[in-house]
């Protein structure tokens, strides 16, 4: 359940990043409210997962999920470039996340 909450927190973080972009500097009320709700939700889930998981591992995995997810959403939704170099570093980040998860933490 702890890892599930951490993964949900990472996914909510991606949603938060998208909502912040869509809020246009918090000038769009609906997106602004959504971003604050997503922020509260991902902090809650992250905090719950930190009750059991080691801080360094949990934070690195959570950050990685947010970073990888945000890059993928940027490429798919916002048509940001999907260059070979970006995809290489995305794969490198995923490898680090999986390594931390499989290291027994």
From TrEMBL:
Key word Metal-binding present: no
UniProt KW Translocase keyword: no
InterPro entries attached to this UniProt entry: EmrE-like, Small_drug/metabolite_transptr, Small_multidrug_res
Main subcellular location: membrane
Transmembrane feature ranges: 27-47, 59-78, 84-102
Top-level taxon of the source organism: Bacteria
Keywords, alphabetical: Cell membrane, Membrane, Transmembrane, Transmembrane helix, Transport
Membrane topology: Multi-pass membrane protein
Cellular localisation: Cell membrane
Protein family: Belongs to the drug/metabolite transporter (DMT) superfamily. Small multidrug resistance (SMR) (TC 2.A.7.1) family. Gdx/SugE subfamily.
Name by which UniProt lists this protein: Guanidinium exporter
Native source species: Rhizobium oryzicola
Source lineage: Bacteria, Pseudomonadati, Pseudomonadota, Alphaproteobacteria, Hyphomicrobiales
């Amino acid at each position: 359940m702890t890892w599930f909450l951490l993964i949900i927190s990472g996914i909510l973080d991606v949603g938060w990043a998208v909502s912040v972009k869509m809020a246009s500097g918090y000038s769009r009320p609906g997106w602004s409210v959504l971003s604050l709700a997503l922020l509260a939700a991902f902090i809650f889930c992250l905090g719950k997962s930190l009750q059991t998981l080691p801080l360094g591992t949990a934070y690195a995995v959570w950050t990685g999920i947010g970073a990888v997810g945000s890059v993928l959403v940027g490429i798919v939704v916002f048509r940001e470039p999907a260059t070979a170099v970006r995809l290489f570093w995305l794969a490198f980040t995923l490898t680090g996340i999986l390594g931390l998860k499989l290291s027994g933490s």
